[in-house]
């Protein structure tokens, strides 16, 4: 463990930023990230790690460090709407991957301790303008994968912004496989788990946490009358339970609406089941990931108010649950009033979160194709900045350049939704970040292959 941490630090190869400062970025094309269109000759001011103001006519504070962004674009940092960033360095190497567990626990798993801020995928995404990422575990032996987090990609060891932000589960084809080979089994397993959690939750004192429950001595457990049963509860559980106590306890805040429940589903019929689940358990705060066939039930998704983090590039029936996939999916759902963001589930999600901005650019181009449904430029940028943040309830904290938000700002060489643009300056919480990666250092090392520049590996 110590060796791996030291190796990661050497690969990063940069000093850790220590504090934020007052920064004014001037004369750039500024995009707020809230769906509005870019502002020419704008200014962004950051103080104490937070955005003070952004737009035209914003005053530059005395003593601020001024960055001239003439000819460049300034946006909020990209928020990876769905990823497994920080959980894997090399997918093919088991020891370097912490995305899932084959152990006895499922819902109780918390991925926060497994996040590796020194992982090369984190550095690569930071260098491409990704400043925050919604990170989820993968399923092991259950439809419940565990609890995901929001992280930042800063060059330090304090990556986790919000641990235990949501519980992640798989429905659809993956969920049915984990449940024994049937969608019906997956749905009944989900409802059974929620009822086990409800039973346990009724035996907890008001305000008790999961750790409180796990450590409470049996004699200390309160007698709580269950209104649906004729017996008292002393924290004892039924004999036919399927979840471990820790897993059941981890689902209590989900049932109480204190933790999001993020569900991966693609097929229209599965999406309708998620909507029905929300009616059955009205305190659930649901988020849907994937939704390749979402456009076919967009009116019902909009009516439910459930946010969707969609895969924007799905345009072919790659499997039987995505037969109606189309690249117009996001545009059609948005037009119907669905709260949509862009993520990269099942799309190299351990490494390639930065692709989301390319996909957003594709949707801008799609708006010009007859018969297709795309997005305006401002809305496309919001799909990879403020909309993911809003989907997980953190729109007031990250994802835009509105006053009071965290100072996650990127200065781009040109239009950030253009594949040819590059991040030239990245700030996270107002601190400028290093953009060097292992790849850039290798490129620099081998740019000049003149004899004598590098030691010869072999001699004739």
Keywords for this structure?
460 residues, Urease, subunit C, domain 1, disordered N terminus, signal, eight-stranded mixed beta sheet, Amidohydro_3, TIM Barrel, alpha/beta
Describe the structure.
- With 460 residues, the chain is α/β, with parallel strands linked by helices.
- Among the domains are: 18-77 and 405-432, Urease, subunit C, domain 1, CATH 2.30.40; 87-179 and 257-391, Metal-dependent hydrolases (TIM Barrel), CATH 3.20.20.140.
- The protein has helices spanning 2-12, 120-127, 172-178, 183-202, 210-215, 245-255, 268-280, 298-304, 329-336, 355-366, 377-382, 386-391, 438-446; strands at residues 23-30, 39-47, 50-55, 65-68, 73-76, 78-83, 130-135, 144-152, 160-170, 224-225, 232-233, 260-265, 286-290, 308-311, 340-343, 409-412, 423-428, 431-432.
- The strands form three sheets. Strands 1, 2, 3, 4, 5, 16, 17 and 18 form an eight-stranded mixed beta sheet that branches. An eight-stranded mixed beta sheet has the order 6-7-8-9-12-13-14-15.
- Helix 9 links the parallel strand 14 and strand 15.
- The longest helix is centred in the middle third of the chain and has 20 residues, at 183-202.
- The two termini are 41 Å apart.
- Residues 206-234 are annotated as: Disordered.
